Amino acid sequence: MDRLHDRLHDRPRDRPRDRPHETSGTAEPAGLIDLLGDWSAAGGPLYRRLTEAFVRAVRAGDLRTGDGLPSERRLADALSVSRATVVAAYDALRGAGLVETRRGSGTRVSGAAAAHRAPADGRVRGGRATAVIQRLVAQPPDVISLGQAAEAGGPDLAGALLDLVREDLPGLLVDAGYHPAGLPALRAAIADHHTAHGLPTGPEQVLVTTGATQAVTLCAQLYLGRGSTTVVESPGWPGCLDVLTAAGSRLVGVELDSDGIRIDRLAAALAAHRPALLYVMPTFHNPTGTLMSAGRRRRVAELAAAHGVTVLEDSAHAPGLAPGQAPPPIAAHPAGGTVLTVGSLAKAVWGGLRIGWLRAPQDVVARLARLKALHDLGSPVLDQALAARLLPALPALAPERERLRRDRLAVMTGLLAERLPDWQWREPRGGSVLWIRLPRAADARGYAQLALRHGAEVIPGAATDPTGAHDDHLRLPYAFAPETTAELVGRLATAWAALPRP
Predict the structure, then answer these.
(1) Residue ranges covered by each domain of the chain
(2) How many CA atoms lie less than 13 Å away from 198 in the CB half-sphere?
(3) Residue 494: which of 454, 462, 458, 465 has the closest Cα?
(4) Which of 316, 350, 431, 411 lies closest to 151 in space, CA to CA?
(5) CATH code linked to domain 144-152+396-498
(6) CB atoms inside a 10 Å sphere around CB 61
(7) pLDDT one-digit tens code per residue, 204-250
(8) Under a CB-based contact definition with an 8 Å cutoff, are residues 352 and 324 in contact?
């Protein structure tokens, strides 16, 4: 949380805090929005919701004595509310003694704020995915969340589960149930899966994890540390960027083109920053839907090997594809470097089946297995056994899944063209999200605040790229049933119509 607070005000880590008359910089509205969280989704008048969000931030210690607040106009513009709403909230905070306004120095958190601190309340704080994760925990009933792009489980999942109970359960119960590196049957099935997709693999090169996020987290713990650098694609998925940052790493973004991460910019970044890790999503990049070409994958492997950089390729969508539907992984291009390949069944089967994995050199798998054992002693055995049954059947299901994806994409884009004709996007090569560009360089962060008040959560581009290059973009999943999509687009259109125009 200290890193978030220091980034909010752009000040050194060793600066004293909470001194009686200390004055720190004025918070930028973008950083303040992260601290305030989902204030607008609550009930009651807007000014009261905003006031309560400030109170929570003070009680949590996210806002401290001397912290400057933006002017009423700047904050109103960032939150897509009237200036009167912010004025009323600031007045309420002054009345409670939490802020004070002085001529020439603006509005600041008062010295009395320290007395309002409270013990940690369990809320998630500190990263770009904060709001997404907190809303996943809270699950407000009237909000259509676009933070996740996974589909509901299908009938194939239910059938496999029944077969597991009838045929496999007695043998599984005889076992002690501890497999830190993964259930042998699943490790073998994953190895066969990679081999069929052009990456020869043995079971000893596979580590089973509790979802893809754990795989990324373990790699970050092994390869990164305070002061390290990671090169990432820009934009990227906030949740994974948070994991890398939490490991102490500084992120350097490299832009994409229609074939994936740009090789010229990647070469320059590797030479200039000497990173410990290169993190990429070659198959249906999130959020752009880009499919990295085979030639680009080979060049990435060659460049990383030449600079001695380990590649972490996140291929969460790949398990749901048939062989040949996408180029082989980056790890299939032997260039002398180390490539770690992440997979998951969240997109291919069901997000509730928390099974992911990492394909890596055998010695790396052994080291990561020791780290994983410290976390959980191994992923749940019954989930792994179910995954071992499902994985070999996925290629046969790929054509029907692709048909369903295209149908839902057509529904979403048709409704957007009708209700929001000014919005722009490029049809994704795959995956389940649209990368929307808003017209008139609109600030997607402010629109996201307004959309949430209309019952639709969107991920603004600022959460995927802190450089400001995608502030006019938003991430829009389309893996919904048609009736949900229609309701969603209706809410987005109503919010767009209410957005204040410059």
Answers:
(1) 2-126, 144-152+396-498, 155-394
(2) 16
(3) 454
(4) 350
(5) 3.90.1150.10
(6) 19
(7) 999 999 999 999 999 999 999 999 999 999 999 988 999 999 999 99
(8) no
